[in-house]
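__Protein archive entry__

___
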Amino acid sequence: MPQDSKPGITEALRAAILAGEYAPNQRLVEVDLCERFGTSRFMLRSALQDLAAQGLVEFRHNRGARVREVSLAEAIEITEVRIMLEGLLAARAAERVTRSDATELRQIVKDMRAAVQKSELLAYSDLNARLHGSVRDIAAHETASRLLRQLRDQTVRHQFSLSLVPGRPMVSLPQHEAIVAAITARQPQEAERAMHVHLQSVIDAFRALAVATARR
């Protein structure tokens, strides 16, 4: 998608926000953004409106646009919704998985295991996102995938923080292994259950982070 189109600008700015180039609550200065992305104010404002609809940007009266900050409490609520959607996709993936899909999923889990053994937390975080994305692709449920992309975008900062918590990958790795085992064995109910267990663990970890943050 060309960057001088509205979808191209929207996607480029979205990627920058998700990469942490713009911090939560940081003001998004139109002049600077127009220069960076080589676009007009009209196109940029339209892109900002799209990102506001996706929950990544917010407008404040007489203060312009800012990167929206998502609290841990909201991240927990979002993950509660993800449980239902990703459980559905895991079950559907188990019904649709092909031999090549199964090979890809097993390879991702193998790479995740290697990342844990080497204490490569950033690599593990990337593989985690890749695994969930692969399950969505295999499930091929357009509506659920669209909703999940928006939900995951809003919690990406907290997901990243969680991946760096000491010992967290050792907890989530066997959960991901269980998800893949059920999908590749074509067991929809077990795949859905395994996904629910994993995301409930994410919620529990978010709650622990919230408690730790409150004590500081």
